[in-house]
Every structure is written in C-alpha cells, then in structure tokens.
C-alpha cells in the first residue's frame, strides 16, 4: 500500500446517509414501479423520500439484482460521506495500489481509494466485479457503522444460527452483532444463508435498519465533560483521521487530562505520524511558564505558533487546568484548519495551483498574504508566464523592486505570451530571474512545477539583494 498522510474529519455519527451508486442506482428520482413484490418496499421508499437513495429511472433499481463488490464499496463510501478532502498523497494514488484486481480507469476507482484510505474493512483481494454475499456485505456494513458511527462496544447475546457452520469465522462476530443491532433478521428457519448473493433490496434494507439503530443509540457528548486520556486519544484519532497506533505516547487511560498534557499529546502525535510540516517556532512569553512541565513546553510553543491554542488575556496558559471536551475539540479543529492551509507537497515535479504559487512567493520573499494584490483563481494551475507575472507584480507593488531599465529581448514564442504578462516577463529576464531556452523560447503556457517555481523565486531574492547592494 502506498504511503499517504491522512487528515480526515468524519461526522457519520449524526450525518444523514447519502447512498447513490455510480452507474446503477438503488432507487428512482420520483417514484418506484418495481417494488411491489419487495418486502422492504416501505423502507426503500422512506430512504428515497429522505434523499438517501436516488436514481435516474425506475428500471434501474432492479431490487432482486445482485450487488457487486464495487457497488457495495461505493454504497459504504457515500453512506458515511467518506472523502479525500484532507488527505495529502506522496504521489497520485491508483485503485490498484490497494486492490490488485481493480481497474484504475473504472467508475469505481475513486470509491476504492477513498474506502482504503479511510480504513474501511475490505479484503485486500477484493474483486470489484464479483458479486457480494450476504455475509460479506453485512460484515462490511457492521464494521463501518461501528467505526464511523462511533457505536459503543456491546457484548452481543449469542443467537443460534442454524447454518452457522457455513459462515466465515471472520464474519461471525459481525453477524452476531448485526442481529443484536436489528440490522438483519434470520429466516423463519433460523438460517442466515450467508453464501447467498445479496440483492440490492436486501442491502438497502440493511442500510435502513443500520440508520435506525444509529439514531436510537447516539450517546450525546457533554461539552463540559472533563476528558480522560482515553477520551483524548479517541478525540485526536477521530478528528485527525488517525488510528490508535499513531499515538506513540504512553498514557494512563483513566487519568484526567490537563491543558498542557492534551496539547502535548496532540502535537507529539502530529509530529510522530508525519502530519505536521516543519515550522520555525518563535517562542512567546507565557506568564505562567514556570507551571509548565519542561517536557511539554516545546509542544505548547508549537501549538501557539500554529494557532491551535491561545494564551488568555493575561498572557497565561493555565497548563494544569483540566480540559473539557469542548475545549479539546476546538483545539483539534484548529489543528485541522492549520493543516488544510499548510499542506506539504513532497513531489517537486508536481504542478502548483495559484494559491500554492502565492504562498511560495510570500514565504520566499518574506512577505505576507496582503502583498499579493493580483486577483487569482486559487485552484487554477499556474503557467510559466502567470507565475512570473505574479512574482514580478508582487515585487513591484510591495516596494521590493526599484525602477529598472529593461532592454527587451527577442522571445521566439512571444506571440504566445499574453500582452498583459509581457512586461513582467521582460523584467524577469533582465534581472536574471528567468532565462529563455536554448532555442530562445519561453514556453509561456507550460504549467510550472514546484521545483521550477522555487528556483525562480530564489533567483528573485538574489536579484532584490543585488539591487539593494548596488544602490
């Protein structure tokens, strides 16, 4: 499996499920004409009326049709609103990185990647085109609602299943809990028929039953509750999309957590799991620093630097105060916000967006965001000409670039350069910030890579320093 840096926030405990399948949907957009003989008709219609299942035409529901592995994965991904919004990949992922039988060009590829990265319990030898059995889908669904629905652990009352000998031993626990949760029922003969292919109607019914169970078993959290170390680990792992193994610090699971110990646990976990980019921390004056354990001081200064925590109005941190769930959640969410805006891209050959270009310019030239006065599409890919123009215009408007006499050079592909960018490009050439190719072209429309953009901004710093020295 390829290495990924995962930072995911999931709210499936209270989220409304959204279960549209790609390619073949569960239900109709307005009414159903193929459910008359389906026992779960009312449940399926209820899901449709709630916007949980939808489709294009009524004939796509095919309630008695078997469901494929790919459709089952897509169902779970959409049900729990799983996504890759806060995930940073070292390289572009492929479905085959996780499931060797997958097709990277298929409609389901993104669903497989999303499920794998979000730790949905799926077999590594999953065949997307194979049909799902009742025991396979039930196991996947139960593992999903327990993971993302934040269900408390239960000791299920063991039910006598007449065909228990046919159930895969790895699925038996999930199936017992599914019966206890009311997600599935045994047949009149006491059998589950685990190896039978699951139909779309049966899958929809299990989803409906799972939703009803989740609605009835949500334990509301008290925001004023003082957290234990176990609570803190759970909050950190869930908010940041980690697993328990990412918590490297040994803790007393029942100990009450203070502001300093929670902050240290959070920052140390971020660092050891590789999710915190390298930053330069300028220590601030904390009025009650003498009360902070020396082993926690670095984490607290780091947390202040990234905006995860703030000092009180009197400059104190109150390190020994027990932390509430509300305060801990706010700190964790602040970290997520920071990581969203400070994502690290390790591939120097990757092209950059306008937002990344602006960030590179402001950081390299020691400016602030306000010095970028050019309106940009934050998600647009940056070309050589647009990046050069953004850099030169920023230098000029921020006062770092004095008036210089530019002798225009002959650019062989000048006809491809936007007239509004030509002056900036000529200036950049004159200052040795950029160079033409050996054939005298500039390639203005080529997307710029991170390494090239970094080199150009570094040369801009050198040019500014030269100009300042020669004044």
Automatic annotation (TrEMBL):
Signal sequence residues: 1-27
A Pfam family assignment: SLH
Record-linked PROSITE patterns: SLH
Top-level taxon of the source organism: Bacteria
Name of the protein in question: SLH domain-containing protein
This protein's UniProt keywords: Signal
Domain named SLH: residues: 27-90, 158-221, 283-346, 408-471
């Amino acid at each position: 499996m390829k290495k990924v840096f995962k930072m995911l926030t999931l709210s499936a405990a209270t989220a409304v499920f959204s279960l549209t399948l790609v390619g073949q949907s569960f239900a109709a957009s307005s009414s159903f004409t193929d459910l008359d003989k389906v026992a779960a008709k009312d449940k399926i219609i209820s899901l449709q009326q709630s916007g949980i299942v939808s489709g294009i035409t009524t004939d796509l529901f095919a309630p008695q049709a078997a469901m494929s592995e790919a459709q089952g994965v897509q169902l779970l991904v959409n049900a729990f609103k799983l996504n890759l919004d806060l995930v940073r990949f070292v390289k572009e992922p492929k479905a085959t990185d996780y499931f060797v039988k997958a097709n990277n060009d298929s409609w389901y590829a993104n669903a497989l990647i999303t499920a794998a990265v979000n730790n949905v319990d799926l077999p590594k030898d999953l065949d997307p085109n194979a049909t799902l059995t009742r025991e396979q889908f039930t196991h996947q669904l139960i593992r999903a609602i327990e993971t993302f629905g934040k269900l408390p652990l239960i000791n299920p009352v063991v039910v006598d299943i007449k065909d228990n000998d046919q159930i895969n031993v790895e699925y038996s626990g999930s199936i017992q809990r599914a019966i206890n949760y009311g997600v599935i029922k045994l047949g009149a003969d006491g059998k589950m028929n685990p190896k039978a292919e699951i139909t779309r109607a049966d899958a929809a019914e299990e989803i409906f039953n799972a939703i009803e169970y989740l609605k009835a078993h949500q334990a509301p959290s008290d925001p004023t509750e003082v957290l234990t170390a176990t609570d803190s680990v759970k909050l950190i792992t869930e908010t940041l999309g980690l697993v328990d193994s990412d918590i490297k610090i040994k803790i007393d699971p029942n100990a009450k957590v203070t502001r300093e110990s929670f902050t240290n646990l959070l920052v140390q976990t971020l660092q050891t799991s590789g999710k915190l980019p390298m930053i330069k921390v300028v220590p601030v004056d904390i009025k009650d620093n003498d009360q902070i354990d020396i082993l926690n001081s670095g984490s607290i200064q780091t947390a202040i630097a990234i905006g995860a925590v703030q000092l009180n109005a009197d400059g104190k941190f109150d390190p020994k105060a027990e932390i509430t769930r509300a305060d801990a959640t706010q700190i964790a969410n602040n970290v997520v916000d920071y990581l969203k805006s400070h994502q690290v891209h390790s591939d120097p050959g990757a092209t950059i967006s306008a937002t990344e270009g602006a960030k590179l310019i402001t950081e390299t030239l020691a400016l602030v965001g306000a010095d970028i006065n050019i309106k940009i599409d934050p998600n647009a890919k940056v070309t050589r000409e647009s990046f050069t123009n953004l850099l030169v215009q920023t230098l000029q408007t921020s006062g770092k670039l004095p008036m210089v006499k530019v002798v225009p050079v002959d650019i062989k592909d000048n006809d491809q350069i936007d007239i509004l960018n030509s002056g900036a490009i000529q200036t950049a050439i004159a200052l040795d910030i950029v160079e033409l190719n050996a054939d005298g072209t500039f390639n203005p429309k080529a997307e710029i890579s991170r390494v090239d953009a970094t080199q150009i901004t570094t040369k801009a710093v050198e040019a500014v320093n030269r100009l300042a020295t020669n004044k």
